[in-house]
Amino acid sequence: MRRHQILDLLIVNPGNRSQVYQGLGQDLAAIEPPVWAGLIAAFVRKRGFTVAIIDANAEGLTPQDVARRVADMHPVLTVVVVYGHNPSASTQVMPAAGATCTAIKEWAPWLRILLLGGHVAALPDRTLREEQADFVCGGEGPITVADLLEALKSNTQPNFRNVRDLWYREGSTVMRTQAAPLMQDLNYEMPGQAWDLLPMERYRAHNWHCFGHLSSRQPYAAIYTTLGCPFHCSFCCIQAPFKRGEAALNYRESLNSYRYWSPQAVLAEIDLLITRYGVRNIKIADEMFVLNRKHVSAICQGLIERHYDLNIWAYARVDTVGDGMAELMREAGIRWLAFGIEAASARVRDSVDKAYAQENIFHSVERVRRAGSAVVANYIFGLPEDDAASMQDTLSLALNLNAEYANFYCTMAYPGSTLYTQALRQGWPLPESWSGYSQHSVDSMPLPTRHLSAGEVLAFRDHAFQRYFTDLGYLRMMQQKFGEDAVAHIRHMTAQRLERRNHKPSSKPATVLPVVEAAPLEILPLTRGAS
User: Fold this and answer.
1) Res. 382 pLDDT band, cuts 50 70 90
2) Bridge partners of 169?
3) Is the dihedral angle over the CA atoms 341, 342, 347, 350 positive or is it negative?
4) How many C-beta atoms surround the C-beta of residue 499 within 10 A?
């Protein structure tokens, strides 16, 4: 960009794949488009401001690389976005975000920087005090960015007191302004993402998303059809950026943050991705896509009428996939559904406000498979009531369900969650750095339970990952469904051992109890090519 061209807003998506994922980040993890960066860019551009985006994560840029670019572009405002690709991914972005702010200030100290995102909204005061940023956003972001640009461009000595959801300094005093309202008319206020500002050729789908066609993980895109979540699981921090005023830590009393784009707007966005960028692999990033049957059905019907050949994945709860929904979604191109099963024990789930009938697990998985789609099952070890037996029950459930893919997480007290507040009140040990909130980092440190240490939880999680993905019954199923390339890829994945600081790799895991299979798997010999 030439010096004489005025750039109002530069949005930076910081990147630290190697720190967050270690070796898994090289060719196994997805490279996802920064959805919130694209949404904010579209929101601000609609109001007449000029916008550019630097996606350091996709381009593999260091904080110093980013700082040089920012200094050369000389924007009126630089926004560093700390939204992850799911709520838990926000805090683990903070090391890269903080390093980026520091590097920018070293290169061009006169530039104005705003930090925003889930982690930032959860801890606005602390973020402002700790990071090299001029401003911090206490809400979801777009309104604050637009207000701040108006203030910066209207006066050489701007008044920030009318910028909603802003935290800033006046001398040594930290100031905060009135909360911004949640955007309600998403079709008008945020009409899609600014795809033309993103390096679309660099984005890559998750490995499992493309089992059966692993050479076709690109191009890839992620979209929202809704914002927010109507549920209040105590381990989740989704509500942090969608709060109003002092309701931040009292989620049960917070206003419903769940809002929709119209099915027509969603379909127009998908049309654009397909016709302009050739995208077929799509993630629906909604925290809970399969919830409102009318909304989901209208989107699916529109996709069916278009006869696209799509590979979509989305989130659901085990109690939201009603009769006929799995078949409709599969016909529309939704080939993977991700379920938050969390734990086998109802007692453990109830302790974190994740209640559902146990039989729903098996019914929903069976419905999805019968429709011809695949399942991603998400499990969490180390919830407050977990002990060695209940964690083993969860692993046994995972092996019994034998989902086509499984994510194994440790319980983290993410800032913005009820668990984080509880941990502070009870004096539970927390990670010493924000990178410690990453599931795969060297210094990963989950919460201890009432019965187990953090190291024991982490060791069991890593054991469960290896146990699941090396299970002979699982590998045979995957060979039958997706072929030998998928099996070889899974074996490559399990060979990437994580370095851990908070437990010894040689720690002896709990004994694996026998698994009662729901139905015997057909035994297929693994050929030499898959070994």
Assistant:
1) very high
2) 174
3) negative
4) 12
Q: Maximum distance among all alpha carbons in the chain?
A: 74
Question: What distance in Å separates the CA atoms of residue 246 and residue 178, rounded to the nearest whole number?
Answer: 11
* Amino acid letter, residue 14: P
Task: Collect all residues with Cβ–Cβ distance below 8 Å to 22 and sequence separation of at least 6.
Answer: 440, 441, 442, 496, 498, 499
Six-digit token pair at 275? Answer: 């016709």
> What is the tens place of the pLDDT at every residue in 162-215?
999 999 999 889 999 999 988 888 998 888 899 999 999 999 999 999 999 999
User: Is residue 510 very low, low, confident or very high in pLDDT (cuts 50, 70, 90)?
Assistant: very low
- Check: CB of residue 315 under 8 Å from CB of residue 289: yes
Please count the other Cβ atoms lying within 10 Å of the Cβ belonging to residue 256.
11
CB-based contacts of 21, cutoff 8 Å, min separation 6: 28, 29, 438, 440
Residue 27 confidence (pLDDT): 66
Whether residue 64 contacts residue 100, with contact meaning beta carbons closer than 8 Å, is answered with no
Whole-model pTM over 0.85: yes
The pLDDT of residue 511 is 37
Integer Cα distance of 291 and 228 in angstroms: 12
Q: What is the DSSP string of 387-441?
A: -HHHHHHHHHHHHHHT-SEEEEEE----TTSHHHHHHHHHT----SSGGGGSSSS
d(CA 238, CA 334): 24
Give the gyration radius of the chain's Cα atoms.
Answer: 23
